[in-house]
């Protein structure tokens, strides 16, 4: 019984000793914690902030085929694109997004909007309106812009292979520029694909007219007429449709607050870790190191 009481009386003494140890080293713990907090604040303040502008989009699905099997078969034989349709399915929005992040389109986008000055803003002298050193390569601008673009598809629709929405995100050090890029990417992509459609359709119509004069077979002429009608319809849609390939559901707004880094959160976590590390160091110095010295182990 007395042995039990002795053991129970020793436990609070050990806890008190630990508390006393912390109090004796309180100055070191406080200084170490504050120092780590200050260093983390200095570090995170030097990290460039990133603003994310988000726009919600979906496939426009306005261009399609006439669906005539004979005309489509003849088009295949003649090498004419019977349908450059943007059909309502997930595969086509995947293809459209792939064109959006392609080198050809993004390099054209950079040139059209004079974005090299924004991409390499530290190398641009605004006062003298010239580059500080050599002019950056547009290829380098493409890679940086490509990294800033992220597209997230609706996971439920993607799993079911249905038409769904997609979120287009642009991460940029300047919130206004992020929103500008996000909104104009969709606008320019629609114009880019519409222009391609018009060029292809005009070429197809010219080729169909040539083939029409070379045959007197009524059935072939009827099929050629249907193909020509389809291509003219596609040209009309490409010229008149504002949302040719992608339709914007929500425009990107200028973000008010940066998405990364979370400065306050980073400093608080770093300070807490500094407090824990300083306490662990005190315990190691008081209990572990003396035992290592007794064992004559290298420290």
Q: Provide the succession of SSEs.
A: HHEHHHHEEHEHEHHEH
Query: In percent terms, what proportion of residues is strand?
Result: 5-15%
With helices defined by DSSP (H or I, 4 residues minimum), what is the helix count?
11
Overall number of strands: 6
Termini Cα gap: 43 Å
Lateral arrangement of strands in the main beta sheet? 4-5-1-6
In total, how many domains does the architecture comprise?
Answer: 2
List low-pLDDT spans: 1-13, 63-71, 82-91
Radius of gyration: 33 Å
Structural class: alpha+beta
Could you give a short account of the major beta sheet? 4 strands, antiparallel
- Oligomeric status: single chain
Classify the helix fraction into a percent range: 55-70%
Structure explained in plain terms:
The chain has 299 residues and is α+β, with helices and mostly antiparallel strands. It folds into two domains: 2-47 and 261-294, no CATH class; 51-250, no CATH class. It has eleven helices and six strands. Strand 2 and strand 3 form a beta hairpin. Helix 3 packs across helix 10 (218-240) and helix 9 (175-213) packs antiparallel against helix 10. The longest helix is centred in the middle third of the chain and has 39 residues, at 175-213. The radius of gyration is 33 Å and the shape is elongated. The chain starts with a helix and ends in a 5-residue tail after the last helix.
């Amino acid at each position: 019984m007395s042995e039990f009481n002795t053991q129970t009386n020793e436990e609070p003494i050990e806890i008190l000793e630990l508390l006393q140890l912390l109090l004796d080293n309180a100055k070191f713990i406080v200084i170490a914690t504050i120092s780590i907090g200050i260093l983390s604040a200095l570090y995170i303040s030097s990290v460039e902030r990133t603003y994310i502008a988000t726009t919600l989009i979906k496939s426009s699905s306005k261009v399609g085929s006439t669906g005539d099997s004979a005309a489509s078969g003849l088009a295949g034989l003649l090498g004419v694109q019977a349908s450059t349709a943007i059909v309502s399915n997930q595969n086509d929005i995947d293809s459209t997004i792939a064109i959006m992040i392609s080198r050809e389109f993004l390099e054209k986008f950079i040139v059209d909007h004079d974005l090299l000055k924004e991409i390499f803003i530290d190398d641009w002298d605004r006062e003298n309106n010239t580059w500080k050193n050599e002019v950056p390569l547009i290829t380098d601008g493409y890679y940086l812009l490509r990294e800033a673009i992220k597209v997230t598809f609706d996971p439920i629709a993607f799993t079911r292979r249905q038409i769904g929405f997609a979120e287009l995100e642009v991460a940029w050090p300047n919130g206004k520029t992020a929103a500008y890029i996000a909104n104009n990417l969709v606008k320019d992509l629609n114009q880019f694909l519409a222009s391609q459609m018009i060029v292809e359709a005009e070429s197809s119509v010219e080729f169909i007219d040539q083939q029409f004069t070379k045959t007197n077979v009524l059935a072939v002429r009827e099929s050629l007429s249907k193909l020509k009608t389809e291509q003219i319809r596609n040209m009309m849609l490409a010229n008149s449709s504002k949302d040719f390939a992608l339709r914007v559901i929500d425009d990107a707004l200028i973000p008010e607050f940066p998405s990364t880094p979370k400065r306050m959160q980073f400093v608080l976590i770093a300070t807490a870790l500094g407090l824990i590390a300083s306490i662990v160091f005190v315990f190691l110095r008081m209990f572990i190191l003396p035992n290592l010295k007794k064992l004559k182990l290298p420290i």
